[in-house]
Fold each of these.
Amino acid sequence: MNNDRFRLVSLAAATLGSLLAATVSGQVPAGGPVTGNVERGRTLYADTYNCDACHGFDAQSGERRLVPLNYTQDGFITFVQNSPLPNMPAFPDASAQVLADIYAYIKTIPADAPALDQVPLLKDIRERKARAAAE
Ligand code: HEC
């Protein structure tokens, strides 16, 4: 992705984030989809569930990077509750409301750097490291 496109995507993610932040009111319509609360999400992400220990305080300086987040809210909730990935713990006890809050919070974080594999030098270093490890 070139820089302009990256900026556009970041902008779109940031705009989406602010839109979400502006619309979350903590009101959950009966029987409707769960609505996330950004402030609660921040605390849940960093203090209660310690997602930041692996994903970074900004959800993009850790491994793996979560911003920009390419999940729907439902997809995110299902994934985090049932993660099949070996290095990502599943959180079966985290409720849909808890994960909607965390989702809303992550969505407000603007992407501040390109993904590793979008920086040619870093990509090259990672590929050489992987090749060396495979030898
Ligand atoms: C022990 C470290 C650790 C903790 C704690 C952790 N994660 Fe992860 N998470 C990972 C790793 C590593 C991956 C990538 C796994 C892989 O690809 O094999 C990942 C992947 C993810 C993904 C998928 C990202 C993608 O690109 O598809 C999401 C979403 C996610 N984590 C959310 C969370 C949330 C929300 C929390 C807190 C409730 C959390 N994680 C806690 C390590 C962690």
Amino acid sequence: MRAIGFSSAARKLTSPRLPAPGPARIGPGHPLGGVPTDTSRRAPPRAIFDNVSNNGRFAVPDTEVAIIGAGLSGIGMAIALQRAGIGDFVVLERAGDIGGTWRDNVYPGVGVDVPAQAYQFSFALNPRWSRVFAPGAEVKEYLDGLADRYGVRRHVRLDTEVTERIWDEGGRFWRLRTPAGELTARFVVSAIGAFVDPKPADIPGIDDFTGTVLRSSAWDPGCDLTGKRVAVIGTGASAVQIVPEIARRAARLDVYQRTPIWVGPKLDAPIPRPLRRLFRRAPRVQEAVRRIATRGVEMVLIDLVVGHGRAPWIAHGGARLARSVWYRTQVRDPETRRRLTPRYGLGCKRPSVSNTYLRTFNRPGVSLITDAIDRVTPAGVRTAGGHEREVDAIVLATGFRLASDPEVFRRTPVRGRDGFDLATFYTEHRLASYEGISIPGLPNHFMMFGPYGWVGGTWHQLVETTSAHVVRVIQEARRRGATAVEVRPEPTERWTNRMRDRLAGSLWATNGCATANSYYFDHHGDTPYLRPTSAAQAARAARTFPLDDYAYTVPETTALGDPASSASPASETRPA
Ligand SMILES: Cc1cc2nc3c(=O)[nH]c(=O)nc-3n(C[C@H](O)[C@H](O)[C@H](O)COP(=O)(O)OP(=O)(O)OC[C@H]3O[C@@H](n4cnc5c(N)ncnc54)[C@H](O)[C@@H]3O)c2cc1C
């Protein structure tokens, strides 16, 4: 088996040994306030951990599960816990509201770029989507509705950023540092999303600009760009949505492009009221539509990439068709069209859809600028050729730091067992995981979106699959009376190697992606973004993976409270 770095040498950093915690549970006196204790009617008694506490050697953490992040993943995970009868959990959210992506991205034109029928949970269909591609505000409304309907809000602690996660081997729980104080949790689920932080704008002079600077992910809805001269920097998926909207109202628009994006037609339309009524009355019909839409998205975003070797003509033919028909009908000026057309293969970078983006470049007053930016001046943007264009506002649509970026975990460190440090691991080793969820060295810790973790066509499939896996492990830990659960290195290496092998013949490896500048590629040159299996296989794996792929540490007091005779504080369970 090819080793991928989970030897003890990979965990050499110093492990902060912290004082043993007190047994206090979060309540009104806790710095994080009165988090409800068990709120689920179906929740079993907390006998296991209480007995552990009675042993006197292991303190009870503040909460059984802490979910970090209250976006789509955090809310979905919270619902899964509730449905499994695990009611003792908190959701820690750094912002002042829930909703993640759909709370932050409120720029003009924001919306899903997959059909909304696919962008919803299978257990919570929304018959009210107004369009095939729903606007962002409707997604936020959907998430708010879910949080209300499933009683998630009372578990959420807003304005609570987790700045550090530290595994406490003595107590067998996680210490989560937040500006409001420390919280201890037996299990941690990281639901911080794929696009964790906006990339810092490393454009010289940006701080000296005297006009308005807007970010796609932190839009100021009060800022009116009507009649203004505007520069948009970046041409990714957000820019594809923003640019046509700004062009409509700005006096002049300059779009600065480093890498062009493949943009296909958007088969969008309002969903007629009678159809919405039908969805409300016959959810089975809507469920059938959801399945078809989800499978369709999966075919485009996954099958095409993973199966490229078997049918390269699809991506090549698609690119040829786009170039010779679609781009021709959209962009009048041949030179502008040439510059808007990617030279890398279709699929190397996440493609987008729009019926207005490419056409925007036909408008008078809209310029596509492909010269490299030299710097921002107090009055505008200067390119490497020395040409300066004055503007009143600059819109930064320059992308995000992904969850695979070590920098994210340098800012908010994750320190596991025996000195394992996630940022160091991601820097020094190729990314790896078990089922896209767990990593050796991080006991009792799960990632909603880990390496090779993007399941299926839309995020909801990922959340439903991952949460099923996490719930299974927590339930098994409860059953065995284990206080620590850590995925074993061998199944992790086996699984990761399988994923890498499957990607070796993928479109990303073979379709001329070198110039794509795509977030699918990480800092090692790997493509650990998606899970190269079908969503159905991933869902099956979540239900059936061998539970002994995890090692369980059971305190020497059994769940029934019998003190064990051994002097050692804990033992690893043998396979059940
Ligand atoms: C503009 C845009 C459009 C998109 N469109 C689509 C689409 O059409 N289809 C699709 O499948 N995907 C799309 N995506 C991807 C989208 O991010 C996912 O679909 C999904 O919303 C991710 O949900 P999440 O909860 O995992 O992450 P997020 O929505 O990013 O939520 C993560 C949450 O964690 C919080 N958080 C992060 N770090 C901490 C911390 N240290 N402490 C406490 N809280 C923290 C954040 O504040 C945030 O609320 C889009 C993304 C963007 C940016």
